[in-house]
Amino acid sequence: MPPHMLERVAEVTDDPALADSARRSLALSSVQREARLAFSATPPAPSEDFVPDRTVYDAENEETLPGEKARGEGEPATGDKIVDQAYDWLGVTFDFFEAAYRRNSIDGAGLPLISTVHYGRAYENAFWDGEQMVYGDGDGTLFLAFTGPLDVTGHELVHGVTQYTADLVYRDQSGALNESVSDVFGSCVKQWHLGQTADQADWLIGQGLLAEGVNGVALRSLKEPGTAYDDPRLGKDPQPGHMDDYVDTTSDNGGVHINSGIPNRAFYLAAAAIGGNSWEKAGRIWYATLTGGEISSTVDFAGFAAATVSASTRLYGGDAAETRAVREAWSGVGVPL
After folding, report:
1. In this predicted model, what pLDDT tens digit does every residue of 23-75 receive, in sequence order?
2. Domain end point (choices 134, 164, 194)
3. Is the domain of 158 the same as that of 61?
4. 156 in active site
5. Mean confidence (pLDDT) of the chain
6. I need a surface site. Which of 99, 201, 222, 295 has the fewest CB within 10 A?
7. In a domain, 176, yes or no
8. 97 with 103: CB under 8 angstroms?
9. What range(s) does the Peptidase M4 domain occupy (predicted)?
10. 337 within domain boundaries
11. Is pTM, for the whole model, over 0.90?
């Protein structure tokens, strides 16, 4: 959840309850984000024992983690839609990484997947805290429950994958890449689950999260950054899709949720040009870049772009259509190679 959306709500709404929810969500998110950044994860030895281990807890609208156990691995549905969505989406994301990249959970070694739902009171976010997933229920007026969109779960869990691989520093361009990688694979998880090819997908993150009456379709669009919403209470989606519109700011750790639109669109352009299923070739190139150990934790857009070309060359050849598509995608968003 980009902080600029909640900042806008807190500033312009004439509804005291919405303003309070936005301010509390911002404060909680800031604390949790700092905790995640301080979390140190050492990649364990990979394991091929692909057995999911899911547990969902209920915070019962408190702010204590993990909360009361609500559902464990293999247990039947609880009847609480929020609990059961969180459980299902953990499983889909686990299955995606196994099927697409032979990755065993978030850390590659079968890390147990833990989620807490009903976190806080009208909490307007979801996050990965370095060890587990946490979901708010939303305020019901602007934002619905954050367990709803599969790609939100995928996005946050991929912060964990990044943590255990490239460990991209959460500031400036490396931070925007950290956010973008989560959007890329969050979208791939959803497309895989729905059986959609690149040309069939909506390329939206958070579709279905905005409540009725909000003028918008999602939180972000990889296909057309800057078009996901335009609402008096939320403002207009500020994401650029080209380096010509790069936003220099000290807010949001150097605009990590804003400038991620540029590498997001690069991935969309590559996947669309390659065609077929986005996770099979474009996704494999990005995954090889993230996990290959060749990029630094402070890599910028140009360095990441060069690494994707290198990864594609290793996978498909320097003159292959896939590699040309990757080169042209970065050129299309103004990132030099």
Report:
1. 888 877 766 666 666 666 777 777 778 999 999 999 999 999 999 999 999 99
2. 164
3. yes
4. yes
5. 94
6. 99
7. yes
8. yes
9. 79-163
10. no
11. yes
